[in-house]
Every structure is written in structure tokens, then in C-alpha cells.
What we know:
Layout: H1 4-10, H2 13-19, E1 41-42, H3 72-75, H4 81-97, E2 102-103, H5 127-142, E3 147-148, E4 166-168, H6 171-189, E5 193-196, E6 200-201, E7 204-205, H7 210-220, E8 226-229, H8 237-242, H9 254-266, H10 271-294, H11 301-315, E9 317-321, E10 333-337, H12 339-342, H13 362-367, E11 372-377, H14 388-399, E12 403-409, H15 428-440, E13 444-449, E14 464-467, H16 475-484, E15 516-518, H17 527-533, E16 550-558, E17 561-568, E18 574-583, E19 595-604, E20 609-615, E21 622-625, E22 630-633, E23 636-643, E24 649-657, H18 672-676, H19 684-691, H20 717-735, H21 741-747, H22 752-756, H23 764-775, H24 778-803
Parallel strand pairs: 1-2, 2-3, 4-6, 4-15, 5-8, 10-11, 10-12, 12-13, 13-14
Antiparallel strand pairs: 6-7, 9-14, 16-17, 17-20, 18-19, 18-23, 21-22, 23-24
Bound molecules: beta-D-glucopyranose.
Beta-D-glucopyranose binds near residues 230 and 351.
Amino acid sequence: MQNTELLLKKLTLEEKCALLSGAETFKTRGMPEHGIPQIWLSDGPHGLRKQAGESDHLGLNPSVPATCFPTASAVANSWDAALGEEIGAALGEEAAAQEVSVVLGQGLNMKRNPLCGRSFEYFSEDPYLAGKLAAGYIRGIQSKGVAACPKHFAVNSQETRRMASDSIVDERTLREIYLTGFEIAVKEGHPRSIMSSYNLVNGTYANENKHLLMEILRGEWGFDGAVITDWGGSNDHALGVKNGSTLEMPAPGGDSVRELLAAVESGKISESDIDARLSELLPLVFDTKAALDAAPREFDAAAHHALARRAAAESLVLLKNEGSLLPLAAGSKVAVIGDFAKNPRYQGAGSSMVNSTQVDVLLDKLIDSELNVIGYQQGFDRHGKPDAALQKSACELATQADTVILCMGLDEIAESEGLDRSNLRLAQNQVDLLQAVAAVNPKIVVVLYSGSVVETPWLDNCQALLYAALGGQAGAGAVADALTGKVNPCGKLAETWPLTYADIPSAADFATRRKTVEYREGLYIGYRYFTTAEKAVRFPFGYGMSYTTFAYSDMAADEQGVSLTVTNTGSVAGTEIVQLYIAKKNSELFRPAKELKGFARVTLAPGEKQRITITLDDKAFRFWNVKANRWEIEGGEYELLVGASVEDIRLCEKISVHGTATVHPYEDVDLDCYYKGDVLHVSDADFEKLLGHPIPNGKTKIDRNLTLGELNHARSPLGWLVWLVLTILLDVSYKRGKPDLNILFQYNMPLRALAKMTNGAISMGMVDGIVMELQGFWILGLVRVIYEAIKNVVLNAQMEKRLRGA
Length: 806
Ligand code: BGC
């Protein structure tokens, strides 16, 4: 093992700077002459995506086969951190087998709005649940000697303008909602790295944000690992390094090295900043390399497939089961309808896309089961085109069956990295089909495939609804087991399903194309809003049925937690997910009506009972006091609510808690709408009171951070032309029903990313020349681009020669 301190003495300043950025899309820079190996980083969150050939960060080129586990939003419905740990261990094993040092996951951004295109990659709208699950995965991944890299830190809740949006959020909301999940993941999972997000937070890029990286992550939480930029997410590399960002990815080339050298020379940063970052990076490089060298080069693909199937089964949520239609008895005559039964939708699109080792198909699994499958019909065009013939054949088949299994869902492009959804609906042709089938055979089980919430105005047309989410490569077997009763589906929703999209507090302004994204609703996302505003939802947070029933009794409570007895009162075995919320009536602060502070899973045979304990931790009663600038506890009486969902509270005990709060955070400030949870239309004045400062203006400026999608604002015909071409190409791809992720990425990409994503071919100096061009200095801009391009080629060649020791 290399001694980092000794190494720091041997390395030249240029070599040190060079180590702080990637050499290739997914590889760091190695320096064999100093014994520093090159390491691989790979996505991702629910399966390894190692691109051994052509690599990209959007999942466009193929990767080495790996197990595709259910996505985070599915596994979150299991509320099972131990399961996360098992999946993590399998991911770690596959990474080690593929000689990958860093697994780029888990994604644990808060689901502020269900239209976020990456919702399928994130766990929950609740930071406690997301943090616990992420910590489980991290422990699992790292048990194999590989580093985990939870992402995207922080306040990254939309894909639109994702590389150049500024999340404007008040400090209390930042702490209590958007950072608490990361805090739990860091303190309980101890990840060796973390990925900073693309966006700015309150005016400063997350990757160079002193408050986030130095004060909170490293200072308060004690994180001593590597902060890795999202791909192309570095803005000012020197500021990043000074403020706690360790490794710039992917491969910005020599320009980025020169940027650091110049910053040390000018005194913008010091060599000790560089050394501090290397003391984070080098141990990670050496330790993971040593673990990989000792690890087997193979993994048991069949065992991982079996784990993926168990995980999918635990993640299933039974949302409706009228007249106990499910489970279906052996021998039942079933008609299987819906394209998804034959062509599974089991993962999302973008950088998390896995090349699965195998993919199970529901139709095959049902044919192999004890059911009597009388036929299959596609039923609808997957991409939404009305097709009367498909619908007619499906109805004909349905008339002959006892029960119809109808597989509905979102298609591959409806939810994706890089693209926010435009609505929460299922395609109309699927809804029409459901209605038509219901008219001929009302015994319909809908199996629903989507990575996130959909509106269900069609719910009355089916008797049962099983939410299969995006269940990974083995999800089909799990669904078949649940339909036939081999598995009792016991998952519970990790996010609220509203009646309609308009009920979501951030609905009116999502996903804004403005630079500033205003988090006006504050603390009130998900169930925190619905329970406070007392607004009805379709399916509440924490909701899920099962084939059995459970009774809760004999609750005891104190400041440390609660204990209670859970009894399986039904006739089949099952698992109950018991949730603990706290509430404080007549609080002096505004606060959500209920907040999740603990949960437990208990598996019971019919008639069996068990005493369970749910402990409360240091996050149970705390709030962020914006005046005292620290965590405090409001003293007084609290209700501890134990429930089967946030709305199905079964037991309640009151306890008294000793407070610490000295100064009232909101004295003399009228924040009435926040006290009532009336946040659908927060006025500028109220939001400014919450922020404690004026709302920053999000005006477009022609600078390095102008996105290519904003080139129409430029003062250059060249800019307009590029904008026009991109816009037309994007429109065409939308019209084809398959938005081009690559063009979308470029559309949302700021100019500076040209220098960060082109393997050193474009320098920041050239970007500055382009900016001059776009500002209207056509000749000067062009001359500068040419001059900087020549300079870049020469300096890069000289630097590479020096770094190779030639
Ligand atoms: C995504 C990250 C991913 C990275 C590398 C980026 O576009 O935002 O989540 O890890 O690419 O593929």
C-alpha cells in the first residue's frame, strides 16, 4: 500500500493537479511511475453499466452484461434496508468482478414532483426512508471493497436545464428535506465517495459550494471521502477543489490541469487545497485497487437473478383487491392482455441502463404457472397510437376468460434521465382499452409498470391493481408469484399518489425552463403537504394492501421509541411494514402535520403475533432553527403515531420532550401560508419571508453558462443557427415519439461543458472565444477561438509528454 503523505512529497505540482481530473469517460488518471493505478468508475444504481468499448454517460452504447435489479423507486416500496444491503453486496461483487472501483449510486434525491424524469432512480419523497435505504446499499457495495458514490448532492429535482438550474431553497427546507437523506446515508453508510449535482444551490454550483461541501458534508457530517463531479458538472475547477470537490469527471483534458496550476500560482487556491483533495482520492484508489486485485473475476449470475426476483417480489404493492380477486386460483382461465406482458418494461433510460444478463417475460411465467392461460393479445400500441383492431382482438379474448390480466404502463421514453415527464397520465389508448375490456369482462387485474406515480382516474374499471413498478430483469417471476399467491405482495408506497397532478404543490411551475427553480412550497413536499393541507389523495404515502390483515395493539412509548404487538389476523403469512410518525399539535413553528421517524418490517404466519420495537434517533424531534443556525428541539408534548400508512394511524401515544430552543426562528414574520400548509400559490412576498432575502432573478446572461438551448438569446447568427438546428432535431425526435437523449443533453448543456466533455479537444479559452462571438464580437471571438485552439493543442501535447515522464 502506498503512503499518501510520502507520495505527496514526491509528486510535482503538475502531476498532483493532473490526478484531480479523469483521463477517460469512466477512468481516472494513473501514474505507473509513482505506483498510482488508473481506476474505473461505472454506473450505476441498480445494475453495473461498465462500458468496455465506446463509453458515454447517457447509456447510449452497450455495456458488459450485468444483473438488472429493480430500480430504487421499486425497492423503496419494500422499506427494507437489509434488502438494499444484499442488492448492494451483489452490485459490489459484480463491480469487483469487472474491475470497477467505484459504483456510481445510489440516487437519493427527494421526489419533489413526480414528473421528474429520474424519479425511477430515486427512492422517496421522504428523506428518512431514502437515507436508510441508501445507507443499506452503500454498506452492501462497500462490503466488497468497492466504493459507493451516492448522488446527486444536492437539491437536484428536475431534469429540465439540469446542468444549469439554480435551486432556490430556504435553509430549513434544505436541511430538513433535501439534505437529511444524504446525512443518514453518509453517517450510517460511510460512503467513500459522493457525487455532486449539476445544479447550483442558492446561486453557487453544488460542486463548488462551500456551505454544502465544506461546512455541512465534511464539517458537520465528518465525510472524509472523495467528492466526484457529475459528468461535465464542474464549473470552476479551482473553486471546486478549494471548496471540497475532489475529482472532476469525465475527462476535461490538460486545460483543467492548467486551470489548477494557474489558480495555485495566482493564489486563488493553495497547494495545500490540492494536497487535501489528493488525501481523499489516493486512499480510495489504492484501497479499492487492492480489493479488486484480491476479488474473483466471476459472479454467480443465477444467484443474482434469484436475488433480483426476491427484491422485485418484496417491492410489489397491491393497491386494490376488490372482492379478493387476487390471488388467482390454480386452473383459473386467464386472458393475458397488454404489450408489457410480452415485452417487459423493467428499467429506466439514461446512465442507469443495464445490459441485463437475462430478462424474464410475464407471459412465459404465467404459461408456466398453474393458471390456465387461454391466450395473449397485445391490446394496444405501446407508444400510444390508437389501434382499433388490437383493441377488438383483446376484447374478444377477454370474453372467453374468467379473469383478465391486463398489463399497462409507461413506455421507455415517458420517463428518462434528461427529460421530465409532461403529464402523469397513462397513454389514452391503454385507458380506452381498459374501458372496452371492462365492458365485456369486469374481472380485471391491472399490472402496472412505471417508475413513478401515474394518475388513476380509470381505477373503477379494474377490480385489482398490482403496482409492479420497474422490477428489474427478474420482475416477471415475482409478478406471476404474486398473482398466483405464491408470494404475498406486501410493499407499501414510498411516494404519494395524488388524485390529479394539479394537487402537487410544485405543479404550477414544474419543470420550469427559467434558470432559477423556486422551492416555494418549502417543507411541504409529498405527504407532508397532503396531510397538512388535509387534501385527499388517491393512495397515501405508506399505503399497500396484502392478502392478509394485521392488528396493532399494546403500544408503549417514550423518547427512545415505541413498542407494540402486531398480529397476523388473516389466513396467509405476510409481512407488515409498520410506520412511526410524529406530530406536534399547537407547535409554535410551522411544521408538517406528520413526519416519518421510524419503521419496521415484521413477517408473521397466520395467527402469529410479535412484539416489535421502533427506535427513535437524533433526527426524531429536531428542527433547523434558522435564527440560531443550528438543530434544536421544540419542547413540549408530541404524538407518536403508529400506522399502516400515513393516513391509517392505528395507535397513538403522547410523550413529553425536553426542548432546547432558545430563540423563536420566525418571530415577527408572518408566514401564515406555511402554518396552514397552504402552499399551492405562495406569493413572492411570502417566499421572500421564508428565504430571508429577495428572490434572485433568473435572467439569461450570455456567458459560459448559457445553455445551447438558449443560443437564440445570443447576438450572433452562428448562435441562432446552432439553436435552430438543435431545436428542429429535438422537435423531430419528439414527433417521432422518441426524444433524442443526446440532443436533449446538449440542449440543456451550458457552453462551459463543451470544455468539460470533449476529452481536452476544447479548452475554456476557446469557450470564452465562443462567448465573445455570441456577445456580438464576431471577428474578435473567432480570432480568439482559433488562437486558443492552437494554444490548447500545443500545451496539451507538451503536458502529456511531461506527465508520461518522456
Ligand atoms: C448522470 C449521473 C451518472 C453520470 C455517469 C450523468 O449524466 O447524471 O448520474 O452517474 O452521468 O454516467
